Amino acid sequence: MLKTTIIGGSGYTGGELLRLLLFHPEIEIVQVTSRRKLGEYVYQTHPNLRGLTKLKFTAPDDLHPVDILFLALPHGAAQKRIAEYAAAAKIIVDLSADFRLKDAAAYEKWYGKPHAAPDWLGKFTYGLAELHRAELQSAQYISGVGCNATAVNLALLPLLQADLLDTARPVIAEVKVGSSEGGAEPNPGAHHAERSHIARTYAAYGHRHTAEVIQESGLADVTLTMTSVDMVRGALATVHGWVRPGVALKDLWKAYRAAAAANPFLRVVKERRGVYRVPEPKILAGSNYADLGFDLDPESGHVVSICAIDNLMKGAAGSAVQALNLALGFEETLGLEFPGLHPI
Description:
Elements: E1 2-7, H1 12-21, E2 27-33, H2 42-45, E3 57-58, E4 66-71, H3 82-88, E5 89-94, H4 104-111, E6 124-126, H5 129-136, E7 141-143, H6 147-161, E8 171-177, H7 192-199, E9 202-203, H8 209-217, E10 222-228, E11 235-242, H9 249-262, E12 266-268, E13 290-297, E14 302-309, H10 313-328
Parallel strand pairs: 1-2, 1-4, 2-3, 4-5, 5-7, 6-7, 8-10, 12-13
Antiparallel strand pairs: 8-11, 9-10, 11-14, 13-14
């Protein structure tokens, strides 16, 4: 069993990591840290884990050497202590935005301040298996993924891999997000409606996850628009672009089926009948799957690609565990082989 610590385990992503790793057959969680919750049982913060663990939150400064260190800290925190964390574990998986971007200048542009450890940026492998499966198999340091960036990157994946997209034209992505994207609420006693209101967001331009889409897709002209909707978990990306001349609907079918066949957590959803004819994030709640849909206007070449995910799973903790499985030489689906909930 590989001894594992979660640094910053009181937030939503920390709770998801606990939920997954407690049942991972090769992992033993030995420590979960939190300054704010120091000394409390983890199930008092994550009540879905009641009866499943007797772990208590410990001090972040009292680290024990382990095999694997998950960092579930606020953005900007991990980069300040990365050398210290690297001394405590052979493998590090950081779920924050600190090491997602490869270029220090890009980080400063999108995050508004210089990176505290720019020499470390090139040491991390971007933790989306569908894009970096080969590199992750030898990775020692793995970065997390932005949830909205993940939904957009996966929506673009079949089009880019099959070279169907006219990359000279703009790509516009509208992402509908749930309230959990705002993070764990500052007032735990707040009513659910109040918590949803606190996390409600709208960003027409300039969302930081745009940088990850540009980096990972290679596209220059990308716009992300973010709107929160009435759900807790989930992200739904509707991506608009244009295909190359001559591309037909049958070519899209081939591309999307090929992407799903090559990636165990990608599914194509394009039904003619029924309620769930297009990707729906609610039925993915708690799962690591990403559902893809598409359509094409053959006259204009306008293509719409849709991706639905659970933002806390495929957009965060689930992708992190999937990437770790690859780094350790396990089946990448290990500990993640369960569907979402229906109805919800």
